Amino acid sequence: MFPRLHRVRMPLARLTVAIGAVVFAASSQAAGLALGDLPSLLEQRERMPAEFRAHLFGNPLTVRVELDGHYLGDAEVLLHEDNRMQLIGFGESHDSPWPQTERARWTEQLSEPMALGVCSAHCRGLAAVHYSLSNSLLTLLTPAGTRQDARHIALPAHGSQGLIVRNSLAVYTGQDQPTSARYSAELNGSIGHWSTVGSYQYYAQPDRSEHYLSALYAQRELGDHFVRAGYFLPTFEGIIRQPRAPGSQNETALGLMLGSSDVLLADTRSASAYPVYVTASRDGVVEILRDGNLLSTQAVTPGIQEIDTRRLPGGIYDVELRVLEEGREVSRETASIHKPSRWRDPTRRWRYSAFAGQQRGLLDSGNAPQEGKVAAGAVVNYLLHPRAVAGVTVQQIGERRAAGLSMDWQASDRFTTYTNFYTSRDAGRGVDLQALYRYRSGSVVANHARNWAEQRQRVVPGAGAAPQWETRGGWQDTSAVSITHRFSHRDNANLRVARSSGFTRGTGIDVSYGRRETLFGKHDVNWRISAYDRPGSRYTQYRRQRGIDLTLSVSLGSDRRSYSGSLGSRTGDGGQRETYATATATQRVDGALLQSVNGTVSAERGGIGAGAGAHLQNPLLEGDVQVYREADSGRFSGTANLDSTLVLGAGHAAMLGRGRSGGVDTGVIVDVRSDYPDVALRADDNHGGGVVLRPGRNFVPTTAYRAGHIQVDFEGRHAPAATLQPATLSYHLNKGGVMHATVDVLRTFTVMGQVLDADGNGVRGVQVINHAGRSVSQEDGFFTLELSARAPVVELRYPSLVSCVLTMEEAQHPREGDVLMVGSIGCPSPLAGP
C-alpha cells in the first residue's frame, strides 16, 4: 500500500502566511476579487512528482489539522478530485489547546465531503478551509477566527423560533377558612430576531377573583442598545445603578423602551479604565503581580506598549510589573488597575434607559384609575470615575411624578457609600443614605431610608365566624446601624439598632450569636440564640414586641436526615409573655416523585401544633405541599406550591420539572432513542452547564445569542458497546429560542471485510458508511467498521461516485473474537465497473 504522507510541523512564519492567505482570501471574496492565493487540489497535484500523483486522491492521508491558527490534532482525511475534502477521524492530539469535544465536533461536521477554499454556502460553522499538500496541513478557519476584533457577537442569521412558559400554582385552604389560589404564567419566546416576554397573573378568593397581564412585549438587541415594544411595567433595564424614586408604582403601559445593553459584547471581560504601559528594550515577558501573587504573564516587544488588562480580575487595586528579558529582571514598577466591578466597558461612560407610552391594561379585570394617561421616564448613569457612578431619573406615571439623583462611590477597598436624593408626589422629599465598611472579621452598615411598611394582623370577628387577615401600611423613615462580626470560622454575631418614625415609631434592637460544632467528630451541630426588642404598631396598641429564641439543628445518622429545634419567649397578641418550643425532622427520600419529607411539632401557651410537608420533584413538575394544625384553635390548614415549564420549538413540546422549571430561557429539546433502555447520557454545553439525558424526551438549557455546541457522551465510567449519533449538537439561538434534535444510542459490533471488483481484485478508496461509523478501504480493499446492530446497513461509495447499499446481518457471518468477518463485498458489476 502506498505510504501515507507524514505530518510536518509548519514553521511559525509559514503558518502565519498560510492563515493570512485564508483570511485574505475570505476578505477578497467579499470584495469580489480572485482567489489566486489558494491553489486547488488539482493545481497542487500537478506540482507533485508523477509517481505520487496517483495516490493523492482516494487514499486516507494523515495530516496536521489547525483550527483558527491553533493545533487541533492529527487526522485522516480523504481528498477528492473536485477540490473537496472529507475528514475520517482524529488520531494523536498531544499539546493541542482544544478539548476533545472540539475534535469530536469537527469529525462530525466534516464527515461528508466539503469544498476547499472560502465558504459561501452550507459552511458547517466554517469561513474557509485550506489544504497545503507540501506541508500536509489542513487549516480550518471559523467566522470567529476572522473577526478577532469584532466588538459584538453575530446573531443567528435567520433568527430562531420557540416558546418557554413557566407555570406556577399556589393554593391555600383550611378548616373553617376560605380557599384562595394564585396562578401565574411567565413566558419567554423568540420570533425571528425578536425575543418575546409575557407575564400573566390570576388570583381567586371566595369573594372575588382578579387577573391581569403585566407584560407582553417584544425586544431586540442592537449592538450596544436594545429596543422594546408592547405592554410592560415601566421598570428600567440596561443601567448599573438606578436612583430610587418612591411612589412611582404603576400599572401596565403600552409603549416603547430604549436602553443600553451588554448582551452582545463579544468579549465580556473589561479593560482598565486607565491604560497601563510598560517599556522593553528587547523581546521578553512582563509578570503582573498583586500582593506578591502572580496574576498574569504577557509577551512584550521592544518599545513602549499597553498591556492587556482584560485578563485581570475586576476591582481597583495596585499591581507590580516585572519585565524579564532572557530570564533576567530588567525593570520593576507599580501601576493601578481601575476595573469597575459592574461596568463592563469603561470606555462607554454613559448608560441609559428610557420609555414612553400610555397607561393601558391588557386582560385586566380591574379598573385602573390611570387608564389612558401618559407614562414616561428615563434613567441615565455616568461613570464619573472607576470608583464613582452618578445617576439621575425622572418619571411621570399618570398624575404621579418622581425624580431622583444618586451617587455610588467606592471610597476605598473597604469603604463604600451610596446617596440618593428624591422628590415624589406620593412620598414627598427624602434622602436614602448607606455606608458600608468592611474589616478583616466583619462589616458595619449604616443606612437611612424612607420605605412603605406593611403589617398583617389576624382578626377574629366573632363566635362561629372564620378568622380573617387585615393588612395596613404607611410610609416609614428608618435609620439603622448593623454590625456583623466573625470571631472565628465557627462563631459569628450580628447586631442591629434601628430608629423608626412614621407608620412605626421607636427604637428597635436585634442581636444574635451563632456557633457551629462537631458532635462525636462526625455530626454537624449548629445553634443560634437571638433576642429582639422592637417598637409596636397600631395592631399591638403600640406595645413593644420582645422575644428571645434558641435554635438548634443537628444531622444524625447520615446526610439524608436532619433535626432542628427551637425554644423561646415572645410577646403574644394580647401583650403577655408567651413561651414556645418547636422540633422539626427532615428525611430525604429521593423517590420518583417524593424527594423529601418533614414533620414539625410545636408547643405554646394555646396548645400543641403539628405539621407535615413534602418536597415533590419529577421530570414534569416540582413543588411542595404542607399541612399544619394550629396550636391555639386546633384547625387544620394546608398549602401547595407547584411549578412546571412547558417548552415548544421546532414542532415539538416538552414539560420540565426536576429542579429546572425556573430560570430556563433558551435550549434544545433532545429525543434519545436507545438500544439500551437504562442508558444515561451526559450533555454538556461548551459555554457551561450540563444535564443528564435519559431515553425519551429531554431538554438541555443553552446560552442565548452565542453560537455553541452540546457534547453528548455516556454518563459515568462504564460505557456500553455503543456509539452516539450525533455526538455533537450545534446551536445558535436568540433568547426564547428552542430547537429540536435526536440522539441515537446504537449498539455496535466491529466488522472486517474486503471490497473486491468483478475480477476479484481489492479496490482501494471505497468509503464504507453506516449510521454508527465509516471507514475507507485500503490498498488491497480491506476495511474495518463499527456497525449498528439496529440498522446493519452499509453504503459502499466508490471514487467514481457510484454507490450501493448492502445489509450485513450479525447472525449470517462468522466471528473471530469480537470481530464479525463479513468476507468479500462489492457493488454489482454494472455499478462498480469502470
Q: Indicate the structural class.
A: mainly beta
Distance between the termini: 21 Å
Q: Helical residue percent?
A: under 10%
Q: Could you report the average pLDDT, rounded to the nearest whole number? A: 82
Oligomer: single chain
**Shape summary:** globular
How many strand units? 53
Biggest sheet details? 24 strands, antiparallel, barrel
How many helices in DSSP terms?
Answer: 6
Percent strand equals over 45%
How big is the Rg?
35 Å
Question: Which labels suit this protein?
Answer:
disordered N terminus; mainly beta; Immunoglobulin-like; 53 strands; 834 residues; 24-stranded antiparallel barrel; 7-stranded mixed β-sheet
Q: How does this structure look, described?
A:
- This protein is mostly beta strands and 834 residues long.
- Among the domains are: 12-146, no CATH class; 277-339, Sandwich (Immunoglobulin-like); 663-743, Outer membrane usher protein FimD, plug domain (Immunoglobulin-like, Sandwich); 747-832, Sandwich (Immunoglobulin-like), CATH 2.60.40.
- It contains 6 helices and 53 strands.
- The protein has a 24-stranded antiparallel beta barrel.
Give a quick rundown of the structure.
The chain is mostly beta strands and 834 residues long. Among the domains are: 12-146, no CATH class; 277-339, Immunoglobulin-like; 663-743, Immunoglobulin-like (Sandwich); 747-832, Immunoglobulin-like.
Q: Which secondary structure elements does this structure contain, and how are they paired or packed?
A:
Layout: H1 12-31, H2 41-46, H3 50-53, E1 61-67, E2 70-80, E3 84-90, H4 100-109, E4 114-115, E5 117-118, E6 128-132, E7 137-141, H5 143-146, E8 160-174, E9 177-192, E10 194-204, E11 209-222, E12 225-232, E13 253-260, E14 277-280, E15 284-290, E16 293-300, E17 303-306, E18 315-325, E19 328-339, E20 350-359, E21 374-385, E22 388-397, E23 400-410, E24 415-424, E25 428-439, E26 442-459, E27 468-486, E28 491-502, E29 506-519, E30 523-534, E31 545-555, E32 561-571, E33 577-588, E34 594-604, E35 607-617, E36 622-629, E37 636-649, E38 652-656, E39 667-674, E40 681-685, E41 690-693, E42 696-701, E43 708-714, E44 722-725, E45 728-731, E46 738-755, E47 767-770, E48 773-776, E49 782-788, E50 793-797, E51 803-807, E52 815-816, E53 819-825, H6 829-832
Parallel strand pairs: 1-7, 39-46, 46-53
Antiparallel strand pairs: 1-2, 2-3, 3-4, 5-6, 6-7, 8-9, 8-37, 9-10, 10-11, 11-12, 12-13, 13-20, 14-17, 15-16, 15-18, 18-19, 20-21, 21-22, 22-23, 23-24, 24-25, 25-26, 26-27, 27-28, 28-29, 29-30, 30-31, 31-32, 32-33, 33-34, 34-35, 35-36, 36-37, 37-38, 39-42, 40-41, 40-43, 43-45, 44-46, 46-49, ...
